[in-house]
Amino acid sequence: MTRFLFDALTPKQARIAAVLFQEGARRGVEVAIACREYMHLADMLRIYGVPHNCFGRYGATPYEKLVFGIERQRQLAEVAKEVDGMLSFPSPDAARVVFGLGKPIVILNDTPHATHVNRLTLPLSEVLIAPSAIPRDAWAAYCPKRVVEFNSVFEYMWISRFVPDEEVIRRLGLRRGEYVVFRPEEVHASYYRWDFAKLRLRLVEEFLKRGYVVVNVPRYPDQIIDGVVNLTEAVDHLQLAYFSAGVVTGGATMATEAALLGVPALSYFPGDYYIDAYLQKIGAPFFRCRDLEGCLAAVGEMLKMGRRGGPKLEDPTALILETALGVLTR
Fold first, then answer.
1. Which of 65, 85, 110, 299 has the CB geometry, 3.0–4.6 Å to 59, for a possible disulfide?
2. Quick check: 17 and 41 in contact, CB under 8 A?
3. Based on the domain organization, do 129 and 196 belong to the same domain?
4. pLDDT at 58 over 80
C-alpha cells in the first residue's frame, strides 16, 4: 500500500487529513497523520476517529518557531522514513525531513499570503494543488514546479460529507438560530501583523446587544472572552455553524465552512484573500469587512439575509489522491 505523510497543523488541516485517510483507504493509499499541540487539533482528529500521532509544540515567537521546529523534525524523521512521500498542507518541518530523505512532496495550499511557510515548502515540492480561484501569478514567487487546479475550495471536502445533528448543540445548551459563533484571528501566525482584538470584542458586544448568545472558539488561551460560551475543547464546528444565526471570524476557514452550508458568515481578516471573492461570486452568503464601521454594517446585512441553500461545488478529494499517486509513478 502506498503511504503518504500528512502533517496537520490546524483543525482545518486535520479535517483534510481525515477525509484523505478515509477516502485513500478505498484507493489503496494510506495517509499517516502527524500533528502537534494546538487547541482543537487532536480533538478534531478524534471526532473523525482516524489514527494520528501528535508531538511537538506550536511556537508563538520567531525563536520558538525555529527551536520547536528543529526539535520536531527529529520526531518527524521517524514517521517519514516509513512513507513514500508527503501529501500535506505546507509544513516546513515535514517538508525539510521528507526532502532530506529524497522523497517527493505534494503540497495543498490556498494561502499565498503565508509567505514564510510557502517559501520553505513550495520550492521543494513536485506539485502544488490549489483552488483555481487563486491566480497562478500569486504562486510565482515560490517557484512551484507544477500547479494543479480545481474549481472549488478545500472546505468542500468535508462540507459535502456533512450530516446535521442538532443533538450536538443541545448538549451545549444552545438553541437553533439563537447564537452566533466567533472564531478569533490567527494572531500568532507568521504572516499576521495586525491587532484586531478590540474590533473582535466590539463585535461580540454588538451581537450580545442584539440578544444573541455568543459562542467563542478560541485559538489560544488568551482569546477566551468573559461573559460568553467559550469552547476550549473541540466539538464539531460544522454542527455549531449549521444551527447558528451566523459565524464571525478573524480568519477564513470557519466563515468559508458556514457560507458553504448556507449560513451567513463574516470575516474581518484585514488582508486580501482570493477565496472570499470566489465565494461571493458563486452566491454564498459570505461578507467581508476591515474596520468597525464596515463590520457593524455587515452584521446588519448578514442577519437580515438569514440562511440560504449552500452552493454545489467540485469535491477535490479524488483529484488530490490521483495527483499524489501520479507523482510517485513519474
1. 65
2. no
3. no
4. yes
Look at residue 112 and tell me if it is in a domain: yes
Looking up residue 253, the CATH number of its domain turns out to be 3.40.50.2000
Question: Could you tell me if residue 51 is inside a domain?
Answer: yes
In a domain, 310, yes or no: no
pLDDT digits over 230-265, tens only?
Answer: 988 778 889 999 999 999 998 888 999 999 999 999
H-helix or E-strand containing 126?
none
Q: Let me know whether 217 and 281 are in one domain.
A: yes
Distance of CA 74 to the CA centre of its chain: 26
The Cβ-side half-sphere exposure at 184, using a 13 Å CA radius, reads: 27
Amino acid at site 200: R
Does 133 or 225 have the greater pLDDT score?
133
Determine the Cα–Cα distance for residues 16 and 19; give it in Å rounded to an integer: 5
Contact 39, 237 (CB under 8 A): no
| 264: containing domain | 167-305
Instruction: Spell out the residues 6+ positions from residue 119 whose beta carbon is closer than 8 angstroms to its own.
Output: 142
Q: Does 322 fall in a domain?
A: yes
Same domain, 180 and 131: no
Residue with cell 456533512: 162
Predicted pLDDT at 194: 46
The total number of structural domains that make up the chain: 2
Q: Which of 261, 254, 260, 263 is nearest to 306 (CA)?
A: 263
Q: What per-residue confidence (pLDDT) applies to 63?
A: 93
| Ranges assigned E (strand) in the chain | 2-8, 29-35, 53-54, 85-88, 105-108, 127-131, 147-150, 179-183, 213-216, 229-230, 246-249, 265-267, 286-288
Cell numbers of 317, please? 478529494
pLDDT tens per residue, range 10-45 = 999 999 999 999 999 999 999 999 999 877 799 899
